[in-house]
Amino acid sequence: MNLVNLYKRFKPSYYQALRDLTIHVGMLSSTLYAMWYTKDSYVSYALIPLVSLLQVKSFVIFHDCGHNSFTPSKKLNYILGTVLGITLLTPLCWTYEHSNHHMISGNKENKLNGDHNHSIFHSLNQYKEMNRLQQTLYKVLRQPFIFNIGIATFILFIVHRFHILCMKLNNSLLYKQRVYQIVFDTLITNICLFIYLFNNKQMLIYSIIWSIISLSLGFIIFHNQHTFNKPYVKTTKEWTKQNSGLQGSSFIQVPKYLKFFTYGIEYHHIHHMIASIPGYKLKVAHEYLEKTEPEFKNIVKLSMTDCYHNLWLTLYDEESDRYISFKEADEKIKNT
């Protein structure tokens, strides 16, 4: 598979990017105006799910800007990503950490000594070594409701205020961005956030609710993009970027009525193989490769039911090379 030719065929387009952005901004703006106009009635709360879904799409566009894949222009991607990041409470320098994820996903011997799966933090052997209190605490924190809502909220409102700067100072970023760029991205997002908090109290409760819902949906999607059985967990010698996409990333079978909001991020197997293809072209790229590449018959497809069940996969069992739930882990420990 020639990735250079693939990129040339499905490279970013000014027309499609700006057309989609215009439609998205129009929908989001009109929905927010309707919410503000009806803020004194319960009708406004009925609009929160729609705003939450639109913010999921905002994040996908923001994510593509970070990969410099939304438009052909790096400068325009930076401007759009910075503005979208303000609305998402996430500085654009978040994408530097996200680049780490692309570099090590599925590689258990990665140069950062980080988790090969960013939502699976411990193996079964590590879980066995925990004392009873540590096991109980980890079970509580990784319970799907708490993890995808409580932990997600903590990360959005607290961790995203400063964590990329901390990572840079700890030399844990593979890409060597300048400190002043990270400080600028972080400050501009935080300053705009505080201005919003103190000058828009009427809409504050709505903003908090839709931010939590959209981020929780994002956490659930992200978990399912790499957490399924059989997993792709390899040594550095075995690991390849192409296979971390084709074997280590899923194709989530999103219902047609939700595809407008997910904006191609469900085709994650292609995105991890070649991140420079924009989300709005991942569907056609998938359809092209499905016809021309035999290995595409073996990609991981997850139904909505699969995605729900995968939320309980919380540990990596090195012996069986599977992701398992706490229930399975406790049974294994009991029987040994």
Short key terms for the protein model shown above:
single chain, 18 helices, two-stranded parallel ribbon, globular, 336 residues, three-stranded mixed beta sheet, mainly alpha, 60% helix, 5 strands
Q: How many H/I helical runs?
A: 18
Coarse structural class? mainly alpha
Q: Write the element-wise H/E pattern from the N-terminal end onward.
A: HHHHHHEHHHHHHHEHHHEHEEH
Uncertain stretches of 5 or more adjacent residues: none
- Major sheet attributes: 3 strands, mixed
Q: Alpha-carbon distance between the termini?
A: 45 Å
Number of domain modules: 1
Strand order of the largest sheet: 1-4-5
The total of beta strands comes to: 5
Shape: globular
Rg, alpha carbons: 20 Å
Mean pLDDT: 92
Percent strand: under 5%
Approximate helicity band: 55-70%
Notes on the protein architecture:
With 336 residues, the chain is mainly alpha-helical. It has one domain. Helix content is 60%, strand content 4%. It has a 3-stranded mixed beta sheet. Strand 4 and strand 5 form a beta hairpin. Helix 2 runs antiparallel to helix 4 and helix 10 runs antiparallel to helix 11. The radius of gyration is 20 Å and the shape is globular. 37% of the residues are buried.
Summarize the structure.
With about 325 residues, the chain is mainly alpha-helical. It has one domain.
Itemize the secondary structure elements and their pairings.
Layout lengths: L2 H7 L4 H24 L5 H4 L1 H19 L7 H14 L6 H11 L17 E2 H6 L2 H10 L2 H14 L5 H7 L9 H21 L4 H23 L14 H6 L3 E3 L6 H4 L5 H6 L8 H11 L7 E3 L1 H7 L4 E3 L4 E3 L1 H9 L2
Parallel strand pairs: 1-4, 2-3
Antiparallel strand pairs: 4-5
